[in-house]
Amino acid sequence: MASCCCRPFLSSSCCRPLIKVCLSSFTDISPAELDALWREPPYGLGGTNEHFSANCIMTQGEEEEGPIGDSGEEEEHDSYWKKKEAFLRGSKVSVGEKFSSEIVLLFTGRRRSSNFPDLSLQEALRTRLRVVESNSKDITQLFKDLSARLVSVHAEEDSFVLTFKTVEEIWKFSTYLSLGYVARCLENFLCDQSFWLDPELLSELEINVTVDEEHLATLYLGLLLQEGSFFAKALFTRSEEDEDNEEQLSFKKNDLLVVRDTGQDSMWEATMLSTGSHGQVPVNAMQPLPYPFYQWFLRKYPGHAGCSSVEKELFENAIVTGSCEAIVDYNPTSPDELQLNQGDTVEIQGLLLRGLAIFIGKHTSTGLTGFVHRAHVKPLNTIPLGRQLVFLTEEEKASLAQVNPYSSEPRDSCLLERLFSSDISSVYRLDRLDEGDFMYIRNQPKHDFKGLSSARQSLMSERSEGATLYQSSPHASVSFSSPRMSLHQSHNPLPQEGECLSFNLEDTFKELDEFQEDPPLFMEENSWEGEESELNDPTLTLFNHKHFQEDFLPLYDLHCSFLWVTFSGKTEDELTGHLESVRECAKRLGMHWAHRRACFVLGRLCARKLKFSQARVYYEEALSVCTDSFSDVPLLVALLTNLTAIYLKQRMIDKLPQTLEKASALLLCLPCHIFTSTDEVELLKLLLRRSIVLGDKLLEARVCYLISSLFLLLKKTEDALPFFERLQFLSVTHSATEGGPIAPLDLNWLLSWLYHRKYMPHLALASLSLDSREDHSLHDAFQRIELFIRNSVRLNPSWKEGTSLLPAQIVVYLQQALAIAEQGDDIKMQRDLCLGLALTYQQYGALDKAVHCAQQAVETGSHINEEDVFEASVLLGWLLVLIGQAERAHSMLQPLLTSLQSTDSPTQRGVIHNLLALCLRYQGRVREAGWHLHCALVISKESGNQRNQALALANLGCLALDAGASLLAERFLVKSLCLFLDLWESPTDEEHVQTYLWLGRSYKDRGKSQDIRACYEMGLLIALHARNLHIGIFLMGYWDTIHTRRL
């Protein structure tokens, strides 16, 4: 739906002259600086995405992915300059020209089947835009949500003029453009409500948006310079021997630097991210990072990338599974590494990532598991992840699909009752005399009016926004054998359907009852003293298990919940003292596993108090204990990731090589990682910087997946949002590069909730409507409905007060819920959804569709009981009356009246009498119609229902008018109006006004012009008092027609 740029901003060769022009308009820039800024980057993504219907991504060539090495640097550099000089000779754009800082966004309505513009849709969109053009508040807010500044609206040219003031604004807008949100927001804003009621029209028509991508790239580069400093990477290596000036900085190819213009023609001031070294660098050696996301990320999370160039790459795919063959003899320097002989076969455990130097393997001969250097093996039988996975394993994709961030409790039936509270079986319906009357009256039950309004307010209340999140972190695979995998699955913390996440102690530890009820694990007072108790210490015994135990999972989780449950009666200092004694005892007795685990727990307690140096000492001691590390994989993961995170936090670069690659392998290569520390984000940031340097999009996607999951687990939703957006962007662009509908995952459902949390209703509705997942449960479908309503209310607060119709777009989500319900056996839910659809269609005048849904509700309700089918039958009868099928309605309603004779339901009998009277009037059977209305009037009087009395009298007046008895009609209508005057608190404004219109027509038949005018003016006053714009417009048009006829 959106034509947009999913490749880097700097990858288009055609934009180079424009970029030179743009930069000249911002500041004085030397030719050398221009040379560096327009250069085409060595990596990019483009293509056409067919899976996400809202995106039509323009393509641009992409350099083949692969390792970045130093070989052939000079040849590559020379060919680059020859290419640039040839381009400049053909350029006709002069540097002195001025370039606009504004950009034009064009929109076009078109048909999906042919990709041709649809002129009728285009004119309808143009007309809608003319209406909002005079009052630009709403459209300005729309583009504000899209991170753009609206300059002007040009309805006749089908365009908006936008501008940007910061790089962050361009970054967000370009992301929304690429994900299809800009087009979908315009579709939601410009399309008429009737558009959503026609499924064929909805599936065929779409809005396409386009921008000048080269112009957008030019604005991006100009804003980079305006902000003073930006991030770039080195194109080649410059050593100290090559330097002519001591002030020049030495760097290697792919090093990340922060560069700043100092006014010199050929030199920039730069700072190395890896070392902090400061100096000057040649402008032609630097390349600005092309994606605005990279600039934002490196500015917010600065640091080094921790990677070096690779001379030769043996692995063709970025992420693989399978097996490898050793190509060298290798004697390990660490006990957790595998010893290899040339020709040995190694099975990949988990994944092998080309961006990491180490992976985890299992020696097929010895059966040992350990770390393997990727440089020591070559592919033997490697298999890339499936086309529907790409950078996630099957388990991770399944667990991510189960993440349900919505905090609402299951209340599907209750939601339908609040949304579609109908009084069809208790309140009479007002007749229609001819086509000049209202199409139908939106009756609402008097006794439920305040309740309905308050229910809507309750439903829309933002107080529930503070509810706890669902846990979204992927959980760890604790072993490679199937028994342990089942163990992992039994402790999977991802919320299942309908399960809420809470971080209070009771909910966090609700699955740890075995620890709470196990008396030996609670230390009695003074039981920690004395040598005899050492060997019998249950903590020491538990910690000394040689292999992973199920009981250890709470010991390694993010909150170290084992300690706070087991030792809940002890202070933190007492707990530290006890664990220190366990450590000393284990060390003295040679209990290696107890020694390692005690050191790990002590390290976690120190890190909890921000004593990182002391924690580091404990972690290093734990790793120095000689054990088979892979006998307890979660412990090894927790140790290495926590220690590496501390090295990064304390900037201990000299110690990083000892643990960095191993921790990275455990973090990224093992599926379903379990987070053990909030500091793991430091390691993930480094790995994301590495993926930026290497241009490895699959590595970047995998890291974004883990970062966003950790932030969501920590309830840092605003921090998680940019990474989920980037992950969705990478998923979309990967589909584009593959040239087919490949989507590793669709995060639109999760993103819609995050936008909702951030109070961005336009984006929440756009992402929700683009959710293409087909594995939603019925409960998910109802949560989508509720999320849609909450954000619709933010855009139209009047619905919260019960004064406006439901948004027509709710039909789309109701149909999705019905399609899911029909696959199950909940018949009542199917009936309720059909009724909801029928009522919504009726509200918008789509009566044929309403009849179809009501008929479906009757058929479905017939399988339940008579009570459930009654309401649907009455609604169907009323709808048949509205569309003129009186005979069919009569044949359906008569048996209902017969069945009610033996029941104590007078109000329901009165409803049927009233509807039968309407059917009979249409058939010309006036006498019978009068008898039924008389019965309905008597029943309403006996029950004391004043509203139904007023309606029955009004219908009698309508019947008299139709029969030509205007004086009799006046009597009935005046009595009805007297009753309506006492019903100000009920929603009877349309019924009240319609009765005045009929009274005016009775006066017209007798030539009482002043009385006619008084009736119409009273009707208009009632409409204004009720703030019912619909009635007011109708009356003014009606009065204008009458006045024209008189003239």
Relative helix content? 40-55%
Query: What class, by secondary structure content?
Result: alpha+beta
Unreliable stretches (pLDDT < 50, length at least 5) are 1-6, 12-98, 444-532
What would you call the shape? elongated
Termini separation: 51 Å
Domain SH3: 227-291, 319-382
Protein name: SH3 domain-containing protein
Keywords: SH3 domain
Descriptive report:
- The protein is built from 42 helices and 17 strands.
- With 1047 residues, it is α+β, with helices and mostly antiparallel strands.
- It is elongated, with a radius of gyration of 36 Å.
Layout of helices and strands:
Elements: E1 2-5, H1 16-26, H2 31-38, E2 55-58, H3 73-89, E3 102-111, H4 119-133, H5 137-145, E4 149-154, E5 159-163, H6 167-178, H7 181-190, H8 199-204, E6 205-210, H9 213-226, E7 229-234, E8 256-261, E9 267-272, E10 278-282, E11 286-288, H10 292-300, E12 319-326, E13 345-348, E14 352-353, E15 358-363, E16 369-373, E17 377-384, H11 394-402, H12 412-419, H13 449-460, H14 482-490, H15 505-508, H16 513-516, H17 538-543, H18 553-556, H19 561-566, H20 572-589, H21 592-608, H22 612-624, H23 633-649, H24 656-669, H25 680-694, H26 697-713, H27 717-738, H28 748-757, H29 761-769, H30 778-795, H31 810-821, H32 827-843, H33 847-861, H34 866-882, H35 886-900, H36 906-922, H37 926-943, H38 946-962, H39 966-980, H40 989-1004, H41 1009-1025, H42 1029-1046
Parallel strand pairs: 1-2
Antiparallel strand pairs: 3-5, 3-6, 4-5, 7-8, 7-11, 8-9, 9-10, 12-13, 12-14, 12-17, 13-15, 15-16
Helix pairs in contact: 1-9, 6-10, 7-29, 12-32, 20-21, 21-22, 22-23, 23-24, 23-25, 25-26, 26-27, 27-28, 28-29, 28-30, 29-30, 30-31, 31-32, 32-33, 32-34, 33-34, 34-35, 34-36, 35-36, 36-37, 37-38, 38-39, 38-40, 39-40, 40-41, 41-42
